[in-house]
């Protein structure tokens, strides 16, 4: 399977950015301009392993900062 072709609709994928949100139950944090691969037709988005790893750390970082206030 070609990695540059969307497995959902068969159209070319390209580099772009997306938004990512984290729900803390007491509020929501949004991260804009997250690098992603995006389908040009259906809009499906894929994040790299490195980006996903960094985003998984975000809730812990934010919780520790919120507690300091």
Short synopsis of the structure:
The chain is of the alpha+beta class. It has 1 helix and 3 strands; from the N terminus they run E-E-E-H.
Number of β-strand runs: 3
Q: What is the element string, with H for helices and E for strands?
A: EEEH
Mean pLDDT: 87
| pLDDT < 50 runs, ≥5 residues | none
**In angstroms, what is the radius of gyration?**
15 Å
Q: How are the strands of the largest sheet arranged?
A: 1-2-3
Describe the biggest sheet? 3 strands, antiparallel
> How many domains, in number, for the residues?
1
Q: Which secondary-structure class do the elements indicate?
A: alpha+beta
Apparent shape: elongated
Percent of residues in helices comes to: 25-40%
Notes on the protein architecture:
- Helices cover 28% and strands 36% of the residues.
- It is built from one helix and three strands; from the N terminus they run βββα.
- It has one helix at 49-67, and strands at 13-23, 28-39, 45-46.
- The chain has a three-stranded antiparallel beta sheet, covered by helices on one side.
- The termini are far apart.
- The model has no long low-confidence stretch (mean pLDDT 87).
Question: Which keywords apply here?
Answer:
single chain; 69 residues; alpha+beta; three-stranded antiparallel sheet; 28% helix
Strand-helix topology:
Layout: E1 13-23, E2 28-39, E3 45-46, H1 49-67
Antiparallel strand pairs: 1-2, 2-3
């Amino acid at each position: 399977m070609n990695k540059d072709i969307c497995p959902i609709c068969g159209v070319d994928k390209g580099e772009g950015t997306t938004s990512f949100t984290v729900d803390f139950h007491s509020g929501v944090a949004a991260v804009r301009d997250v690098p992603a691969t995006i389908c040009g037709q259906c809009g499906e988005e894929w994040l790299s392993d490195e980006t996903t790893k960094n985003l998984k750390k975000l809730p812990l970082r934010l919780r520790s900062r919120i507690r300091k206030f």
